[in-house]
Specification:
There is one protein chain. The longest helix has 37 residues. The chain is an alpha+beta fold. The protein has 9 helices and 10 strands. It is elongated, with a radius of gyration of 33 Å. Strands 7-6-10-8-9 form a 5-stranded mixed beta sheet. A 3-stranded antiparallel beta sheet has the order 4-3-5, with helices on one face.
Length: 283
């Protein structure tokens, strides 16, 4: 038992030492200070609980729609006919690389880059100009130069190097440029790049069309993934053009999560489904 008039202890070497005298009033003051600290902690916890309860209630209702949209984007099939239409609509540019195959003159088979002057080098047969042409047009140009029927010529894009789409904000993976592969819709593209990010707002997606090359005023389009995928409303499923910029906004629940104190963030993410989504994205 600690005596109020004096406290003695021995140091680690067995030598006795006498601490300053502690009066009974000092012990009482120490106890009061500890009680005040505990009460302050309880008040802070109650304040956080009062602030966070409505946020958790609101966030919980977002999880179902958000999960449905995520699954729909990833599972969205791209029909083979649609892929063929995209391929036939794509206009090749330098420095795209084409895979060329001939049924009758296999010596010209192989990958052929489009050179700086927009031409395709076919050796002794010539150098047809193909810049800005679609694949069916390239087939006809190549067939005419080589002197064979277009039905005996097969051309595909091996490497899309000339045009890009730019992804910003809450995208799956990092912000980046991805190859433009033809007039895909926004859902087609998101499916191709792996969907949207964990903190994305499906109703806050903007497509900026800068119109730098043609000198027109930039355009801004709003995309509502929830309407497209859950209500079968394709009106905002925009068809993309080269060099479009896609900006995916951050959801409120993700924004609130960033503002949470570190000790509460795991609970918040678990309630909102953010922790589950992050684990699903981890390798």
């Amino acid at each position: 038992m600690i005596r109020a008039d004096e406290v003695e202890r021995e140091d680690s070497q067995g030598c006795g030492s006498t601490l300053p005298k502690i009066r009974g009033s000092d012990i009482a003051n120490i106890a009061k200070s500890g009680w005040r600290i505990m009460q302050s902690g309880r008040r802070r916890s109650k304040r956080w609980a009062g602030l966070l309860t409505p946020l958790l209630a609101a966030a919980g209702g977002c999880v179902t729609d958000r999960a449905q949209i995520e699954r729909a984007v990833i599972a969205q099939p791209t029909p083979s006919l649609h892929i063929q239409q995209l391929d036939s609509s794509y206009r090749v540019r330098c420095p795209d690389v084409l895979q060329v195959a001939f049924d009758d003159v296999p010596q010209y088979n192989g990958k052929r880059p489009i050179e700086a002057d927009g031409r395709l080098d076919l050796g002794n047969s010539g150098r047809p100009r193909v810049d800005g042409e679609t694949i069916p047009e390239v087939v006809r140009e190549v067939a005419a130069v080589v002197g064979v029927s277009p039905q005996r010529v097969h051309v595909d894009v091996a490497e899309y190097n000339s045009q890009s789409i730019y992804l910003f904000g809450q995208v799956a993976g990092s912000e980046r440029a991805v190859p433009y592969r033809g007039p895909e819709t926004i859902v087609d593209l998101l499916h191709r790049v792996g969907g949207i990010g964990v903190g994305a707002a499906p109703r806050d997606i903007k497509v900026i069309r800068p119109h730098v090359a043609d000198g027109k005023t930039p355009e801004i389009f709003t995309v509502d993934l929830a309407a497209i995928l859950l209500r079968n409303d394709p009106s905002t499923n925009l068809q993309l053009e080269p060099f479009d910029q896609i900006h995916i906004g951050q959801s409120r629940r993700s924004f609130f999560g960033d503002c949470m104190p570190p000790w509460f963030r795991p609970i918040y993410e678990r309630v909102c489904g953010l922790g589950r989504q992050r684990s699903n994205l981890s390798p």
